[in-house]
Amino acid sequence: MGQKGVISPAKKLFSWVRRQSKKVKIFLGLTTALTLLVTLKLVVHDHNYFFVTAEAIHLIGLLVLIYKLTTLKTCSGLSLKTQVLTAIFLAVRLYCSFIMEADIHTVLDLITLVATLWVIYMMKFKLKSSYMADLDNMPLYYPIVPAAVIAFFVHPTTTHILINRMLWAFCVYLESVSVLPQLRLMQNVQIIEPFSAHYVFALGVARFLGCAHWIIQVYDTAGAYIYLAGRGYFWIPMVFLAEIVQTFILADFCYYYVKSVMSGQLIVRLPTPV
To answer: What is the largest distance, in Å, between two alpha-carbon atoms of the chain?
Structure first.
């Protein structure tokens, strides 16, 4: 009785939200996101912490996957293609970071890349029998080719050589859509076990923090940050757009994840695609 009473408010809340119209749900989502943004702006004063925290959360999500692969001996529900795309943009970003910055981001990217490569190795060789190849059916060139084409035309204007600037833009754009194969697989499966759900939710939180950084920067500079001198007139708007795209891609899953957790469920159930 006591345990049921503890979880019933959350169930009532999500039951009420579920009954609302699409417009009301969007309004509630935007209101929640705005509240979180205001809280972050008031609490976090060094905006660089947003990116460091986002990268750390991504790494934590990968550690959850590693725990799953080593203890449960299965990679069901995981997209190998998303891991490959992640390894690609991390490798490119690591190279660019080493050339252009060489700071804490470089260290975090190196650790995350090693963890991602280990996950790929386990999925491709050790746990191949449990890999859902037929459901992981998004071609890799779908996200790679558009990211490369946009990077060729829209990249930062800095003192670095042109190819490095294009590579930096490529990794930013590719990261924004790298989770699409994972979401496609989960839509095909519809029932997501806990460890895979934790990993994707970690990606959602990381992307929200990255998006929060850009929104707060734009707000603090009254929009001037979008057209920061020396960066090119289209580069920062495109980065801003990429962060927003990442956030919205994962927002729907994060809603169902939070709903499942607050309802005391161990698995995440996604709605049947219309």
So the answer is: 66
Q: Tokens 């991504």 appear where?
A: 58
Per-domain boundaries in the chain: 46-262
Q: How far is it, in rounded angstroms, from Cα 150 to Cα 161?
A: 18
Per-residue pLDDT reduced to its tens digit, 113-131: 999 999 999 999 999 999 9
- Name residue, tokens 């280990």: 118
129's tokens? 């029998």
What is the spatial distance between Cα 201 and Cα 79, in angstroms, rounded to a whole number? 15
**Cβ-Cβ contacts under 8 Å for 34 (sequence gap 6 or more):** none
206-260 confidence digits (pLDDT tens): 888 877 777 777 777 665 565 654 455 677 778 878 878 878 888 878 877 877 7
pTM of the model: 0.81
Q: Please, where are the H alpha helices in the chain?
A: 2-19, 22-43, 48-71, 80-100, 104-121, 141-153, 162-177, 180-189, 194-220, 235-262
